[in-house]
Amino acid sequence: MTRLGLGLAALGRPGYINLDHAQDLGDNYEPAAMERHAHTVLDAAYAGRIRYFDVARSYGRAEEFLASWLASRRIAPGAVFVASKWGYTYTAGWHVTADRHEVKDHSVANLRNQLAESKAKLGSHLKLYQIHSATLESGVLDAAAVIDELARLEQSGVQVGLTLTGTLQAEVLRRALGIQRGGKRVFAAVQATWNLLERSAAAALEAAHSAGMRVIIKEALANGRLTERNSDPAFAARMATLREEARRLATNIDALALAAVLNQPWADVVLSGAATAAQLQSNLRAANVRWDSQATARLAAVTMDANEYWRERSALPWN
Hints:
Blueprint: E1 4-7, H1 21-24, H2 31-47, E2 52-54, H3 62-72, E3 81-86, E4 88-90, E5 102-104, H4 108-122, E6 126-131, H5 144-155, E7 159-163, H6 169-177, E8 180-181, E9 184-185, E10 189-193, H7 202-210, E11 214-218, H8 236-248, H9 253-262, E12 269-272, H10 277-284, H11 293-299, H12 306-314
Parallel strand pairs: 1-2, 1-12, 2-3, 3-6, 6-7, 7-10, 10-11, 11-12
Antiparallel strand pairs: 4-5, 8-9
Helix pairs in contact: 2-10, 6-7
């Protein structure tokens, strides 16, 4: 089994913020067509020995698409690891141009409602349930009723985790590490952004891994910015460095970027966000990249200031 997993954020709904996402779906947003397309990518992932699959309540019909694939391929719960998330509600109504694509609600009532919905879709395949984009501002980590409910979920056999976003990822993670119920840490896993451009959470993620948490890395390709799709003139110097290293290591840019994460000993699972089978096949090349100290040294030059990174991400258009 590869350490690569597959996230379905770009497969479960018509709109997403990845660069040029529109062309991946061929402008065919009919639900049945999108379900078939998702199944094709899932088949490619399974054939590539991926067994970790990541969805969320806010990813449109991602849970439904994954569930129908699991059922149609007769994949037993023990054969794969399925993680989902609660805290956002999908509100785009299957429209790419919606004013709002998702609404955040970290209340205990929403946790209970969305957990019931996720269980109805995924059943016993669901192994990990995560707070979607936990932040200090939302107060979710200070909400005793939410933490108590999550602790009860963990006692029932479903692991509990949280996903992070923004410049304060490390602070939120350090706060989460100290949350306990009954003398036991509540959170068994953390899903965070780390990539060649944004590395600010590295020390906190290493500490979490050392403490026994499963560390899952998302956005390893920076929503397409670490692929050949990035034609931004302001990125040209970084792109030149990436291309040179990819050539030297006989790979492509996306596999190079994923290999950089796989090279981190604290990263347990690294998510591919592939929206096509071809992208997935390209991503899988990361497992064969022979990373070396020269790559580490040379690619340090492409790192961005965290504030700049997150400003650019927030400006990416839904498409």
